[in-house]
Amino acid sequence: MERVTITLIKDVFYFTLLAFLSMKLSILCMLVFTDFTTAESVDYSSLLVQERKTHFVHLLYLVFFSPILETLIFCVFIYSVCQRITENKYIFILCSTLTFSTFHLVKEGHIGFILLYTSFGGLLFSYNYQKQIRRHGKSIAIGTTLFIHAAANLAVNFV
After folding, report:
1. Burial per residue of 84-115, b for 16 or more beta-carbon CB atoms within 10 angstroms, e otherwise
2. Which residues contact 104 (CB under 8 A, 6 or more apart)?
3. Is 43 exposed, middle or buried (0-12, 13-18, 19+ CB in 10 A)?
4. How many beta carbons lie within 10 A of that of residue 31, not counting itself?
5. CA–CA separation, 30 and 3 (whole Å)
6. What pLDDT sits at residue 118?
7. Pick from 20, 34, 86, 102: most CB atoms within 10 A?
8. What are phi and psi for residue 52, nearest 5 degrees?
9. What is residue 52's predicted lDDT score, i.e. its pLDDT?
């Protein structure tokens, strides 16, 4: 039991760190691959899609509502649908990642940047979900994915 707990803590820390780093790497990629010679001016403040609001309602949305709804839709629901169709875990990861990143396109900002960082996030969340559900069951998979998503949202918005 203790070994399982240590493994889960390591996984949660690892995936949270990866989600945070993927967001920062996405920003760096957008800056590196932007053509600065074009006449069009790019508003780099728009790359940070989520404004850094610190009021309580926004914090509740970031930490509770968003991770809960998105985990239920993009992991739990899509996993159950994919399991009926195929046992291939990569199909679930692909479907979950694509729907997660497509869902986030409704936000304002640079489309390439949004697709890049939400694809990384969706990939991490779906991979963690399928890994934990196979190892520890559905409740642990939901719990760890929720925690990683909430921690990633906090890190992206406040670090």
Report:
1. eeeeebeebbebbbbbbbeebeeeebbeebbe
2. 114, 118
3. exposed
4. 13
5. 40
6. 87
7. 20
8. -85, 75
9. 52
40: which 2 tokens? 């069009």
Predicted confidence at residue 69, as pLDDT, reads 94
Question: H/E/C letters for each residue in the chain?
Answer: CHHHHHHHHHHHHHHHHHHHHHHHHHHHHHHHCCCCCCCCCCCHHHHCCCCCCCCHHHHHHHHHHHHHHHHHHHHHHHHHHHHHHCCCHHHHHHHHHHHHHHHHHHCCCCHHHHHHHHHHHHHHHHHHHHHHHHHCCHHHHHHHHHHHHHHHHHHHHHC
pTM: 0.78
Lookup: tokens for 87: 């046992």
Q: What pLDDT sits at residue 19?
A: 79
